[in-house]
Structure formats: C-alpha cells, structure tokens
Design brief:
- The chain is an alpha/beta fold and about 280 residues long.
- It contains eleven helices and twelve strands.
- It has a single domain, classed as 3-Layer(aba) Sandwich (Rossmann fold).
- The chain is globular, with a radius of gyration of 20 Å.
- The N terminus is likely disordered.
- It binds adenosine-5'-triphosphate (ATP).
- It holds the Pfam family ABC_tran.
- This is Phospholipid/cholesterol/gamma-HCH transport system ATP-binding protein.
C-alpha cells in the first residue's frame, strides 16, 4: 500500500520522456507461418537501435510494421505516441512525413537527377524551388556529395547512391530514421563510409533511429565510435567505452533473443547468441 510519504517522492525524470517507438506484444504471420511472435520493446528519443538476426528472421517486417506499411495480426505499435495499427491512411501519411527511410537498394528514381531525388519530399510538400535547392545542397554536403547534384543515379557507384538515399532521408529533418540494411551489398570500405554517416547523423542531430544490418562489424563500429565535429571524422571513443545511445535488438525464430546495451551483448552467456556473434 502506498503511503503519503511515498506518493510525495518525485517520479524519475525519465517517466516524462515518451519513447519514440513502442511495440507491445506484436505478432504477425504470413501464409500461416509465424514471423514475429509476441514482440515487445521500445526505442527512446535519441536512441539508435541496431537490429540483428539471421536472414529471414523478420528484421525488415519489423521495420515495415514501425512505418505502418503493414499491420500486425495482434499487438499494438506506437510511433510518436500514436497507435499506427489503428491509423487511417491520411494520418499514416502525416506520420511518415516525420520519418526518413533508407532502403537497402537505395530506391532512387532512375529518371530523376540527384537533386530531384533528394528534393522529392520537398516538392511533394510544395516547398519553394529556391529554398528546396538550398536544402538539397545542405543535405548533399552532409553526405559529401554536393558535386554530384546534377548527376543521375546510373552515373553513381553503389556507395554514392546509398549516400544520396541518406541525403533524401534527412532533408526534412526527420524525428525518426529507419535504415534497412544501409550497407547491404557494399564492400567493407564503402560500408564504413556509410556507417560514418549514420554515426554523424546520430551524434550531430541525435535523431532516433532503427538500423538493420547483416554485418556485425558495422554494428560494433557504430557502437564504439563517435563523430568528432572538429575534425569532421568518425573516431574510436576509446578505453573500451561505447556510445551510450546505441542499443541492440537481436531476433531469432520470431522472438527477441537479446535487447540491451553493447556490453551486455558482448558478455552474453547465451549459447545461441555466442555462436551468432562468433
Ligand atoms: N509480404 C510477405 N508475404 C509473405 N511472406 C513474407 C512477406 N514479407 C515477409 N515475408 C516473410 O517473412 C519472413 C521474414 O522476412 P524479412 O524480410 O523480414 O526477413 P529479414 O530478417 O529482413 O531477412 P534478410 O536478413 O534476409 O533481409 C521471411 O520468411 C519472408 O519470406
């Protein structure tokens, strides 16, 4: 029973901060085959959640659920405090305006120039041409590609296309970024340049993010590095320290095999996780 004294104790500050994404008991099956079963987790403001797991375990399905692109069979999903599973298409459209998406295949429009691709959402929102151009240049500068503004996707390397895709995702100043395998299909050196951009976005803008990766190396690079704004480069945090805003979610056979911080993951005693991380 609560006492007068206990009710007077002020609640911790964190109680006032609403998570950006909340999954509660979410399940979904395709063709009677369960893909995600009773999944619950939340992502706090400013957090980067790295999603790992074997091929086909449901990582992309989880991300599509977070974006309201598909609906769960049961459970609820809240994004920015709103239940996306109950939203009308028009409200989902407004919600997605606050979300930046980076797809594995970059998903650029081949017939549009880099400038038109990056400005796509601004044009949809009827942003005046002059302002749109300034913002495109700024976003392309962020990813180090301002010189490619007049090129077409077919003239770019895979890594450059991925960088354009990141510029397109950040141009609206999103409150949440969903990265679906942003380094997929890239060589290790190019992958590192993409991870560096993700770290830069995390440490400069503190945008809440969900990031799927198949490469453990990328996941740990994200956790162990920070962006140095003075040098304009990513650098090791050092002394074995890790980024406090980066957490991990590992899926296996439709369930959460791990959800927590980097140190807990690397010191796990779970046999399956140890094998997966080896
Ligand atoms: N629209 C759909 N219809 C039927 N099955 C689907 C659909 N979308 C996903 N699946 C199935 O759900 C399972 C999980 O797919 P998902 O793409 O989320 O896996 P993943 O973990 O992202 O895989 P990968 O690491 O290979 O990208 C797979 O078996 C896939 O075939």
């Amino acid at each position: 029973m609560s006492t007068a004294a206990s009710t007077n104790v002020s609640e911790p500050e964190q109680a006032q901060v609403e998570p950006v994404v909340v999954f509660r008991n979410v399940s979904i099956a395709f063709d009677m085959k369960p893909v995600l079963e009773d999944i619950s987790f939340s992502v706090d403001r400013g957090e980067t959640l790295i999603i790992l797991g074997p091929a086909g375990c449901g990582k992309s399905v989880l991300m599509k659920l977070a974006n309201g692109l598909i609906c769960p069979d049961s459970g609820t999903i809240e994004v920015f405090g709103e239940n996306v599973t109950k939203m009308r298409e028009i409200d989902l459209y407004k919600l997605r305006a606050r979300i930046g998406m980076v797809f594995q295949e970059s998903a650029l429009f081949d017939s549009l120039s880099v400038e038109e691709n990056v400005a796509y959402r601004l044009h949809e929102d009827k942003v005046p041409e002059e302002e749109a151009h300034i913002r495109v240049v700024e976003a392309l500068k962020f990813v180090g590609l301002e010189q490619a503004i007049d090129k077409f996707p077919s003239e770019l390397s895979g890594g450059m296309r991925r960088r354009v895709s990141i510029a397109r995702a950040i141009i609206t100043g999103p409150d949440l970024i969903l990265y679906d395998s942003p380094t997929g299909g890239l060589d290790p050196i190019t992958s590192t340049t993409i991870v560096e951009l993700v770290v830069k976005q995390r440490d400069v803008s503190h945008t809440t993010s969900l990031l799927i990766t198949h490469r453990l190396q990328d996941a740990f690079t994200l956790a162990m590095n920070r962006f140095n704004q003075k040098t304009g480069r990513m650098e090791l945090i050092g002394n074995g320290a890790i980024d406090p805003s980066t957490r991990f979610l590992v899926l296996n056979e439709g369930k959460i095999a791990f959800h927590g911080i980097t140190q807990e993951l690397v010191h796990t005693t779970d046999p399956w996780l140890k094998d997966y991380l080896a």
